[in-house]
Amino acid sequence: MRRILLRGGVVLNPQTHLHEPLDVLVEGERIVALGNALSPVDAQVLEVSGCYVVPGLVDMHVHLRDPGFPDKETMATGTRAAAAGGLTTVVCMPNTRPTVDDVSILDGVLATARRDGVVRVHSTAALTKGLAGVERTDMANLLQHGAVAFTDDGKSVMDPVVLYDIFQTAAQLDTLIASHCEDHHLVRGGAMHRGEVSQLLQDEGIPALGEELVIARDLLFAADTGARLHIQHVSTARGVQLIREAKARGVRVTAEATPHHFSLTDAILLDQGALAKVNPPLRPAEDVVAVVAGLQDGTLDVIATDHAPHTLAEKQQGLSRAPFGFVGLETSVGLAFTHLVHTGKLSADQVVARMSVAPARVLGLPIPQIAVGEVADITVIDPEFIWTVDPNRFLSKAQHSPFTGTKLRGKAVATVVGGRVVYTEKEGLLT
Ligand SMILES: [Zn+2]
């Protein structure tokens, strides 16, 4: 049987608060021993001294663009980018072509994932047919076919009658609604946060209120129906505060922050233009501070990338015409360690928890753990690895990023999925 020894690292296992120098022995697809100076025969040895050995990272907000947009990304390229970024599990969004609003489409996505994926892939399904916000999907059937959550990500369902039915159905099924919060009546045509920078760039702007109104509405719907709600990519201070207060009242809500919302302000658009155009938009410094505070106190449970690949040609159409979004799978660990751990804002254990245990718990997936008997989904992070973001080296098809040229400290240097080493910093992709 295949054996791998991860030797000399420090194991972080947030679920049991373990933080200790330990070797990890993997046999077949499982972890079979933790200990000091393990010396099994016939094991492939990964020297990981100076590194953290952590439960496989889970990214619950990823656009793999498959089916429908092979110029932007595919299951094969997106999951390879995930492996290179240290993710062992990704959850893809349903705004593909066709939309994942029917079991046949969902079955197709999951079959493609089994065939082409190099990490584990789960899929969400749409709340409404064609993401049109009019007709609810057959959530019960989609749930039976493996949908891990329901979302119209990229849009909000604006009709309260349709939405109330969705929340009641989700409550009955005890499934998760993941909500992209944006009031379409307030948000029209802007490419970036409405504020000083949008005035300078003569963009109409996207008001923070457009996001906050829908967060407030969805929290009320969750409170009223008892459904489980997850707020995606929270970007404003008032949004964080609304969620904090709802949690204190016992509303069943969780929330996520993206690396770009905790590490960039809207000022980056002065340099990067449409390469930094994203939805929700990058906000001013006071919002970034509030997002970090939300991660510190657990109001924001999860770090998720909203990896949203587009071709360079699409992103070079100018601020108003370029599509929203950019890639994040290969920079999330570096950004989290640089901006949260090395600044002393969160511990490495907290960051790892927000990138592994927390998303798994929110989705009802098995909790990833470094412990004997567990499936060997493992990420090795070198917290001191200094590197410069170079999109030409991305495994994602989208070889551009607003972080191009940024120096980061911390990187995923090996990724193990089900006992198989799929990526190492030295050797690259191994599958
Ligand atoms: Zn979204």
Q: What are the defining features of this structure?
A:
431 residues, Urease, subunit C, domain 1, TIM Barrel, 2 domains, seven-stranded mixed sheet, four-stranded mixed sheet, 14 helices, 30% helix
CATH topology of the largest domain: TIM Barrel
Mean pLDDT: 97
In the residues, how many domains can be counted?
2
- Calculate Rg over CA atoms: 21 Å
Largest sheet: 7 strands, mixed
Bound small molecules, which ones? Answer: zinc ion
Overall form: globular
Give a structural overview:
The protein is of the alpha/beta class. It has 14 helices and 18 strands. It is globular and about 65 Å long. Helix 2 (103-116) links the parallel strand 9 (87-92) and strand 10. The two termini are 18 Å apart. The protein folds into two domains: 3-52 and 374-429, Urease, subunit C, domain 1 (Roll); 56-363, TIM Barrel, CATH 3.20.20.140. Strands 3-2-7-15-16-17-18 form a seven-stranded mixed β-sheet, with helices on one face. It has a four-stranded mixed β-sheet with strand order 5-4-1-6, with no helix packed on it. Helix content is 30%, strand content 21%. The structure holds zinc ion. Zinc ion binds next to loops.
SSE topology:
Elements: E1 3-7, E2 10-13, E3 18-21, E4 23-27, E5 30-35, E6 44-47, E7 52-55, E8 57-62, H1 75-85, E9 87-92, H2 103-116, E10 120-123, H3 139-144, H4 160-173, E11 176-179, H5 196-200, H6 208-225, E12 228-231, H7 237-248, E13 253-257, H8 259-263, H9 269-272, H10 285-297, E14 302-303, H11 312-315, H12 332-341, H13 348-355, H14 357-363, E15 378-388, E16 407-417, E17 420-424, E18 428-429
Parallel strand pairs: 1-6, 2-7, 8-9, 9-10, 11-12, 12-13, 13-14
Antiparallel strand pairs: 1-4, 2-3, 4-5, 7-15, 15-16, 16-17, 17-18
The chain binds zinc ion.
